[in-house]
Amino acid sequence: MVLFSLFLVSMILISLSMGYIKIPIADILSILSGKLLGHTADLDETFMAIIWDVRLPRILTCAIVGAALALSGVLFQGILLNPLADPYTLGVSAGAAFGASIAILLNLSAAFVSIPAFAFFGACLTLFAVIFLSYSSKNSIAGLSSNNLILSGIIVAAILSAGISFLKFIANEQVSVIIFWLMGSFASKTWPNVFIVFIFLIIGYIVSLFFARDLNLISLGAKSATSLGVDQKKVTFILLITGSLLAAACVSVSGIIGFVGLLVPHMIRFITGPDNRRLIPLSMLAGGFLLLFADTITRSILPHEIPIGVLTALTGGPVFCWIFKKNKL
Amino acid sequence: MKIELKHINFSYDPDITGPDISEQDTKGQNIKSQDIKNLEKIILKNINASFSSGQFYSIIGPNGSGKTTLLDVMTGYYKPSRGSISLEYENISQLSKKQVAKTIALVSQDYAVNFPFSVQEVVLMGRHPHIPRFSHPTARDFDKTGKAMELCRISHLADRRITELSGGERQRCIFARALCQDTPILLLDEAFSNMDINHTLQILRLVKKEVMENDKLVISVFHDLNLAASWSDEILMLKKGEVKAFGLSDTVMTPENIQEVFGVSSVVEFNPHVQAKQVYYPTH
Fold it and tell me: Is this complex's ipTM strictly greater than 0.85?
């Protein structure tokens, strides 16, 4: 845990120093401490602007989104008891994408909040649609079961994907904007973005830790969990909402970034075992680290910035193949 | 400790509650035609039974007769459509899930664990209702876990992943988990279905000892009528969700009852080796 935190902090520092203008780590430390302690008189104005106003918001957003996606992935895999589950299993990404596409198409992007706000709204609507579909009052026992949820998620996502295709079709020249938004990016993130995702992450983290042990017991099956005093339905419902809202916040801020939520929990499970009390914090740190690593590569090492969603899949995929083959789950 | 079932009806369909038989007793037969049409969908029909501590009960009956559902209603996993269950004179629906978990442990049929937890972690989960949120298990919890694993002879498996074990070994782990849950009531749902005869007998002796020495109340679902007859004090026979017979093992175990409930002809004799009645099935 300490080791992983050190990794993440040093990654943040390294990432701050890298970019079009290289800044030595010592300068970064003095800028950060100067900003935090309030005496900024003797610091270089340009460096300060680059670090504090440009790089730090982007880097923090990226790390927080990575952590939130990983946390959401842990929750979904734990509740749905399905190793293939990820933050987007319930169609949250499709809902967000649909919302964002509408915002782009109606040219609401002039105002800075509208695309993320529409995306978040779309994601929430989708979530309620999926939960409404999978919950049946006729057979309340089978309601919210893993299969029901996954199926409803797939159905809703399929409908929304068709809707997105249609929007792209009628979008003409704006189609490239939609496609770029969908592929995800951390470019030009600001402090408000950082605070929004941070608040979601903190609340999500507290809720998940609160129910971490119950989540462990849910892997024994609904009946056994209930007989051990876990209110399985309540815990499932709360954690589903938590995981989906985390994913929705991430998607609205940074677009659809796949793979982190699916892979990080699996990787960390190899290290910690399946106990969620250890899995949750470590997955968050590792998710933040990995996404920041990928974003730093695309921002400062590659000649052109390629969409982060593409990069995570391209780099994370092979790494996971290797780990998967070596450990064979 | 005493668990009492009064007029329990259960159906998966919440709209079907079944005829209110307690009312019929006073008003006579007034079942509506709707109720008769839905009778097939009612899994449990007017179950009345009382179980008290220091006794080993068995539930037997053909497939689909409602044995597992009856146990699930007792743990509060299913809400009965009608009727009430009282636990030491307190209605079980008034108790929190945690309170119930401190009183009733269940060894269920689905002993699959979906993530590769170690055996010790799984057994320790039995202490869940006793450990407050955010706190770590105490030395006493680990002590109970260790003892339960020793009694079930799975100490040598403590660090193995439960997903790697055989069905019988996994059932012993789940049994150990229920044992360290440390409850006055223990419900076993075919808890021996995958164990070899050696471990079956060893666990049954363990259960019997818990009943005799610690005054536990055990209710076990059996498929093997002879195991049920030799180990339990009383037997409850279920057929299509109704109680066909409930009483001392020797009085319930008759060829007539077995014929009625299971539809097989049998010979029932007292066997001096097991000090109980045993059932034999003629091959011709």
Answer: no
